Amino acid sequence: xxxxxxxxxxxxxxxxxxxxxxxxxxxxxxxxxxxLYGAGHEPFKVYSRMFxxxxxxxxxxxxxxxxxxxxxxxxxxxxxxxSMGLWNIGAEGQIMAGAIAAAWVxxxxxxxxxxxxxxxxLLAGVVGGGVLALGPALAKAKLGVNEIITTLMLNExxxxxxxxxxxxxxxxPDSFNFPLxxxxxxxxxxxxxxxxAHLGLIxxxxxxxxxxxxxxxxAWGYELRIAGSSESxxxxxxxxxxxxxxxxxxxxxxxxxxxxxxxxxxTADRLTETLSNGYGFAGIIVAALALxxxxxxxxxxxxxGAVQIGGQSIQTMGVSSSxxxxxxxxxxxxxxxxxxxxxxxxxxxxxxxxxxxxxS
Amino acid sequence: xxxASLIGLFVAMVSFGALLYLAALGELIAEKAGxxxxxxxxxxxxxxxxxxxxxxELNNPWIALLIAxxxxxxxxxxxGLFTVGLGAExxxxxxxxxxxxxxxxxxxxxxxxxxxxxxxxxxxxxxxxSDLPWVGPILFTQAPLVxxxxxxGVTAAFVxxxxxxxxxxxxxxxxxxxxxxxxxxxxxxxxxxxxxGGALAGASGAYLTLxxxxxxxxxxxxxxxxxxxxxxxFGAWRPGRVGLGALLFGGTLALKTRLQxxxxxxxxIILSMLPYILTLLILVLISIQARKRPSPSPxxxxxxxRREER
Lengths: 360, 310
Known about the structure:
The structure holds two protein chains of two kinds. Chain A is mainly α. Chain A contains 14 helices and four strands. Chain A has one domain: Orthogonal Bundle (ABC transporter involved in vitamin B12 uptake, BtuC), CATH 1.10.3470. Chain A has helices spanning 16-38, 43-55, 58-82, 91-108, 114-143, 147-167, 200-217, 219-229, 231-236, 241-266, 279-289, 294-313, 322-343, 354-359; strands spanning 3-8, 192-194, 197-198, 344-349. In chain A, a hairpin with a 2-residue loop joins strand 2 (192-194) and strand 3 (197-198). In chain A, helix 4 packs parallel to helix 6. Chain B has a single domain, classed as ABC transporter involved in vitamin B12 uptake, BtuC (Orthogonal Bundle). Helices cover 68% and strands 0% of the residues of chain B. The model of chain B has no long low-confidence stretch (mean pLDDT 91). Classes of the chains: A mainly alpha, B mainly alpha. At the A-B interface, strand 1, helix 5, helix 6, helix 11 and helix 13 of A face helix 4, helix 10 and helix 13 of B.
């Protein structure tokens, strides 16, 4: 009986990951055509609207870039942890924690001049995200507690903390009893670069460049990658794993918190319970598609930003925005599939036991 | 606080407990086989929407439940094929499954938002039993899925603990290479466990739209899939303990809407953080204990198994 088997290639195919990414995109586009057609829409009209709304002109680019900022920073947060083999599933909550901290600074410093207030808010965001990551970081470093679950649980806690704040202590007295936090003071908003693209873009690009250089070219990054590839090698070369775990998870949380404060000061005008909007989870997918490399995160985040903004725009055509959600999942599954296949070759074996025997 | 409202609380506790238990049991089975599936929320949403649609179109709640379970299993199989077949990262694939499930559910259910249900699973009539004091209303006025959840729990405990199938499944989760050497197909065992897990998550979703809510709206699952993931850890991967945990966490869900009627001045939002915080504490506790005795977590959980890398 002929059975297909996956055989690991000695050399991965050149350009495997970008190609896999392209395949994922292609699969998603085809699935999208089927979904749109099935719902009685004209797929290519919808696609062209998506393209125009996300990349068609300067305003569209501004929206896409503003969306790519939290996606890219969340992706970076996940990728930094990921380059050491750690999973930060808590970016969603850390974004919220960063936003809470930044909103708090805006509350107590509402009369400060803009540059000082904004710097304070961004700094608070970094601290807030770090604080939420502190528990999981300590638990992992000192006790070996699985960080996947701890960071995941804290998402739900952070989102409820925001709900509690805006239903209770931080409820705007002028909101006619709606659970809304007050608006940020005007000088606490990030300035626009062009159209409505805000300063967060530059902050995100800077963060990604610094992280990419740090991971690739510094001793710190080298140790990080060693620790990620093999625990025992890291130990033999004298790297303190528990210290490394602690700093990396804290840094990861801080970056996500930074994203939260940027999102608050740049896009949202007040703290809301939907502020993190799935960016933390999408960031995991962004980082996975970028193979946990900071340098790849920017490109993937830009694409996801465009897909999300395009997806929003087609609601006016009566198309469910869920189509863009589905597209994002298919990009990932398509790319994972293609990515794995690019590292393997498929062979048809006549006898499924030959492989096993030749190895033993 | 009077007797009737206290009984009402316990009725809701058991009801919500069963909702969480179905999904958590599914996750437990997958994790016991070594596959972490963070797609519970998505599978629940798919179960909820397909049950509602099938109910509306076919007017038979049992067929609707069956379809929801099949839909959950199919979605889970996507995760299974990617993680078991291709060795993809379980965390990433699971989260993508949540996104896919929520997206698909919104897409499929678009025309059904706000519609009246075509079929419901209404409480079972136990006759005189339901007149017993306390026990009667709490245990014998529940909807069928509550009893089904208990039945599934007992079955899972038996199959996992006492049968060859359960042994193969646990072996695949503890040490895939040993399971393979013992002649079990790790691929088939893991794939089957993930699919069964998806079917149970689908049943949990169906419970929402066939009994609890019974309506379809986007976001209906409201993070309960994550509670299910937490429950598996809280219950230390044991069907019985997970069941007790489900009652406890179900109790917090039930209490959430009742705090005011009980005259307790405590934020229901803060209360809803409790399951997650308890799970965090338990996790830390398990890790401290793990220095003295083995961790209850399956040793091979989250690890891909590639035969040629054995």
